[in-house]
Amino acid sequence: MGRVQLFEVRLRHGRVVYSPGEPLAGAVRVRLGAALPFRAIRVTCTGSCRVSTKANDASWVVEEGYSNSALSLADKGSLPAGEHNFPFQFLLPAAAPTSFEGPFGKIVYQVRATIDTPRFSKDHQCSRVFYILSPLNLNSIPDIEQPNVASTTKKFSYKLVKTGTVVLTASTDLRGYVVGQVLRLQADIENQSGKDTSPVVASLLQKVSYKAKRWIYDVRTIAEVEGAGVKAWRRAQWQEQILVPALPQSALPGCSLIHVDYFLQVSLKVPEATVTLPVFIGNIPVNHAPLSPQPGPSPPPGALSRVVPSAPPQEEDEAMASGPHLEDPISLFTKSHSQQQPPQAAFGSVPGAPELRPQDGSPAAHPLPPPLCISTGATIPYFAEGSGGPVPTTSTLILPPEYSSWGYPCGEWGSGAWGAGSAAGPMQTSLSPRRGPAVL
């Protein structure tokens, strides 16, 4: 065995999750088989954000520091054989952002100990990673209790000369959610045409933006639900639920290099119609009851109001007469529901982290400290500039659309970019974007 038999950093009580502004205490433990001369024994506490232009690259092009404190545990001397403990304590910065890890960047905190040996001797180093959780209180977000509603109207032609209109409206019961809470979605589709629509698809999307030499957007689908299409001259209502999995919180206050955003997108492929609702993921739930809407269990068909299309164009009389004109409103059924399960390597329990507990949809108080999730899991990169398009990958996640200069996903995304498609297993889809990378 070597002279240094054990050299490690231990945190008090085995904790690894801390809050900003909290003291971090521990000890450096050394076990020697023989006396060891040294020039100094030091311990440092560092925290920084590092961003790279290549996925899973150990090197980085941009760095932002949050903490860099050092202590001298022992001056020049010699450690006799045996076991030695050197206690230390640091005060964590009050504005330190929450830990995060993604393929293009990470926010990492660690304690590193060093035994500085005399000249020509090998220095000894060890480190211990810890995590900071700065809880995002959803109630601090302006208008978080307001209804989350978006609507769009699309005109489209069929049978060469026929013209129809479809109105797509989507809403959620809240604007913000915590891990384990149920997101309640409601979509209203009014098909004022003689052609059936395609199935309706709702997707919970995550967009992570990395600021390197250029902005890099990393997009993935967290969950996807597909409902049936709407028959000609019918109005339908679709109600579904999505369980919010373990996800990093929206935004990372204190960090200017990484931004995390979530969106709920509801779309039709035919006609091409999309509405996007921004959604916040936090750690402390909304404590106000939602004002409206309040989607609940799907009512029976007879409970919906009777809808008759208003003054269809005269040239559509032939289409109306060619088949039965169904006037009774309906409730759409769900065809498929795929929700990505967080990989163990990405969302596995962090030692010492609070245990995840399911949250129901009520605004009840949070019974435990908020859970910590530091990783986004597997994602597909998307660059804001450059001549090359997205590279195909074996991942089952769908490729992202063009963002152009939008602040969040919205507008015309290309036919089929996030359209309908049955998912066979978690996040499997046959869809792909039509357009290449956007240049900002």
From TrEMBL:
Its main location: membrane. Residues 333-343 have a biased composition (Polar residues). It is found in: Cell membrane. It holds the Pfam family Arrestin_C. One of its GO terms (cellular component) is plasma membrane. It comes from the Eukaryota. Residues 291-370, 420-440 are annotated as: Disordered. Interacts (via PPxY motifs) with ITCH (via WW domains); the interaction is direct and participates in the recruitment of the ubiquitin-protein ligase ITCH to the NOTCH1 receptor. Interacts with ARRB1 and ARRB2; the interaction is direct. Interacts with TSG101; may recruit TSG101 to the plasma membrane. Interacts (via PPxY motifs) with WWP2 (via WW domains); ubiquitinates ARRDC1. Interacts with SLC11A2; controls the incorporation of SLC11A2 into extracellular vesicles through an ubiquitination-dependent mechanism. Interacts with WWP1 (via WW domains). Interacts with NEDD4 (via WW domains). Belongs to the arrestin family. This is Arrestin domain-containing protein 1. It comes from Equus caballus (Horse).
